[in-house]
Amino acid sequence: MTTDEQQNQQPLFTEFSPASKADWELKAREDLRDTPLESLTWHTYEGIDIKPYYAKEDIADLPFTSQNPGDFPFLRGDKTGSNSWLNVQQVEAHGNGKHAIDKALDALHRGADGIYFVVHQQELFDVAHLVRQIDLGKYSVSYAVKEQPDCFLQRLYAELERCNVSPLNLRGFLNFDPISVQSKIDPEESRDIIKILDLTKDSPDFYGITVNGTSFSSIGASITQEIAYTLSAAVAYADRLTTAGQPLESVLRNMQFVMASGTNYFFEIAKLRALRLLWAAVVEAYKAEPALAASLRIHSTTSSWYQTTLDPYVNMLRTTTEAMSAVIAGCDSLTVTPFDSTFKASDEFSERIARNVSIILKEEAYLDKAIDPAAGSYYLESLTAALAQRAWELFQEVESMGGFEKAYGEGFILGAVTEVSRRKFRNIATGREVLVGTNKYPNPKESLSFDPEELIQSAAFDTTRGAYPTEVMRMATELHLRKRQRRPKAIVAVIGGSEKRQVNASFAQEFFSCAGFETTQEHFATVEEASDKLSNTAAEVVVVSSPEAAYIREFGPRIRNHHAKPTLILAQDPQHMKDEMLANGYNEFIFEDCDMSTILQLVQRRLAQDEDQKNA
């Protein structure tokens, strides 16, 4: 654009006058009428209160918001040309790994930019086949090993030398992380990492120190905990290695974080921005060259915490938004987990779908064209600053306790994560937090393609996920179906009529549908009609919803005096009437925000007792 063209440009939307934050607040309060604006504030697991709107005034005093990409402290990343990232497919390598290597080569021909091998027996892994099949100078290839990482790399570098492949072009990383995974590093492991740094010194694009933030996110940590504990673990490595004589510059240049991206879309974008900002503060605290902070590499993977076994195709949607968050936040590489990985080994179809998520985000959504699209957003800039402040305070608390290893050893870190994860589990159990297809909006026609009993007993079944408690209850229902050749039945009996009771009845119907029951809602004008028609019901559960307390009191004893004795549940918060309702024959109570896991445990226990009596 020429200077004349710039001068002739007319500002857009001149018919609209600028609105201040006070103007927006006044308008919002008018539109909300009797609803207080403050009631829309969201209280998060991170201890951050999210307002219903943000304005220019919210970021007026924030530092770094006007900086360009590539500028210290790298809140906006160090990319200056494009927002490119590597599409990395994870491949499990068992035995000599030949099958995994051949699969990886096929994936590279089908759109993957790199491969991440999870090596289960590093001493058996055929590095000669790897070097012959995959051009390690062209593709990024990374490895996760549980032990003797130096031996693995020695074999790899020896094979590179034998095949006249220069180590200068080697790209990828080695994931060997005793601190994040097992909370400490022993002297031998410390020596192993020193050997890694020595072996990889001629491979500037191969990272030898990996810190797994996924160790915290996978067990339900908050985002501030993820950031703080990942930073603290990284500092533990830096202190250990520099004390052992390694140059600080070498340690910082070889540092990489592996972070999981969850479903909290904007928080996940802000997370990586805050992480880079705080890592720059750590580098500055070491009095190292500030530019070294730009060497930090971030590999993102979609979160295991939010993956579900039930209605697994929903995982495709989850991983897509998770991948978008990581990419918009500027990750360097990305692994998308196949949608069926919670209950079986992924196949060609699910792996292709996972691989194509990243390709679509690049080739069709053009997310590689804009660096840090979050820049200037009043909400995202404010959120980044809030997360950074909270995480830095927690990081300093851990450091004041003697660092990561000591804080973990004393139970502080695991205790703090457990407290948050319990709140998350409770919110899922009460329906406040929704996992679509699992605790809300179930697929009534879903048929499980696996043996639920075998899966539950499998060591590979991830019990740390948010969906796990609900899934176990649903699978117990599935086992009942397979043994009895029919689903257990739940009837929601609506006696009389009331809008509120309809809400409770609908909630109960959806709840038992999620639990895998054949669920129907039936309406009755009187208690007599309801008890007569339900007296010989084959339903294992009867839920009663009524506006009249007299109906409720009368129905319980009536159904108890009939032949059928289903589990009887009242669709109402009993409050001060709980003892009376229990005395009238009700076993439990269901209402919004109740603990659904307690109800399912009761129902499944009674189903098991009935099964035992039939088999006696």
Automatic annotation (TrEMBL):
It comes from the Bacteria. InterPro entries: Cbl-dep_enz_cat, MeMalonylCoA_mutase_a/b_cat. GO terms for molecular function: cobalamin binding; intramolecular transferase activity. Residues 124-453 form the Methylmalonyl-CoA mutase alpha/beta chain catalytic domain. This is Heterodimeric methylmalonyl-CoA mutase small subunit.
